[in-house]
Amino acid sequence: MGAWVWAQPTPRPAILGISHVAFQVKDLSKAINFYHGLLGYKPTRMRQKNTAPEQVTFKVNGRQHLKIFSGLPDGQDERMLEIALEVTNAEAMRQYLLSKGLKVPPKLDQEPTGILSFTVEDPEKHLIKFIQLKQKNTSKSFREEQLSDAVSDRILHVGITVADVKKMDAFYLNLLDFSEIWRGGRPDTVINWINMRVPDGTDYFEYMLVSGPVSRQQLGVLHHVALQVPSMQKALDVLRTRLNDPQPYKLESPRIGRNNRWQLNLYDPDGTRIELMEPFPMR
């Protein structure tokens, strides 16, 4: 009598953290002035096909980048293009999601640098890219090659709009094994934000809960990136030396957030919020 052969479940490869966040901008020069002139990240222009939007990459550290693309159309509210998650094996991740019934591309994309990736949509249409870095890059410390002029050397979290928590949890919590680490709101009796940490690292997504249509201005606030700074005062001191070079920038005052950490909101020329945040609560 033949023995039963049970199909083994496809394992999920490690999801290490946020690799990059990409935004579309209307005026590339003005955006570079913000991300380079104010935040201090060195711009690297990427070669694109003639018909493709121009791309500029800003290295935050050895494993994380901010990216901007030209060509934001007049009247388009959405500026966030994609969020990339670093995985140990892109093909294994594609096979894992396929085994769970998710629609995935038939094959991986390979960049000239050897980076492997594929992109899917989450339940609320945010584009999520899974990216596998070249082997020689994966052993580097994430702080390696961080620029001394940069105001921060880490992307701590990225904010995304969420209208249906159950549907998003089915993707991030149940499928990708993210875990909830904090929730809060203003006032305390209301939940406005839920923080969901990646399964194999300390970066996290912030659910920005919405209950109806949002304006362009609101979307720029909700779809945001948080950069960690060891000291808000030191960050302020650096930013204040750059407020008029190369173009004037009006700096808001820092505030203490609902998580009891110092925070400072900055906005690029298209209204996308870049949040600076200290790593620990105030004492």
UniProtKB/TrEMBL annotation:
<dbReference type="GO" id="GO:0046872">
    <property type="term" value="F:metal ion binding"/>
</dbReference>
<keyword id="KW-0479">Metal-binding</keyword>
<dbReference type="InterPro" id="IPR029068">
    <property type="entry name" value="Glyas_Bleomycin-R_OHBP_Dase"/>
</dbReference>
<dbReference type="Pfam" id="PF00903">
    <property type="entry name" value="Glyoxalase"/>
</dbReference>
<feature type="domain" description="VOC">
    <location>
        <begin position="17"/>
        <end position="133"/>
    </location>
</feature>
<dbReference type="GO" id="GO:0046491">
    <property type="term" value="P:L-methylmalonyl-CoA metabolic process"/>
</dbReference>
<protein>
    <recommendedName>
        <fullName>VOC domain-containing protein</fullName>
    </recommendedName>
</protein>
<dbReference type="InterPro" id="IPR037523">
    <property type="entry name" value="VOC_core"/>
</dbReference>
<dbReference type="InterPro" id="IPR004360">
    <property type="entry name" value="Glyas_Fos-R_dOase_dom"/>
</dbReference>
<dbReference type="InterPro" id="IPR051785">
    <property type="entry name" value="MMCE/EMCE_epimerase"/>
</dbReference>
<feature type="domain" description="VOC">
    <location>
        <begin position="154"/>
        <end position="279"/>
    </location>
</feature>
<dbReference type="GO" id="GO:0004493">
    <property type="term" value="F:methylmalonyl-CoA epimerase activity"/>
</dbReference>
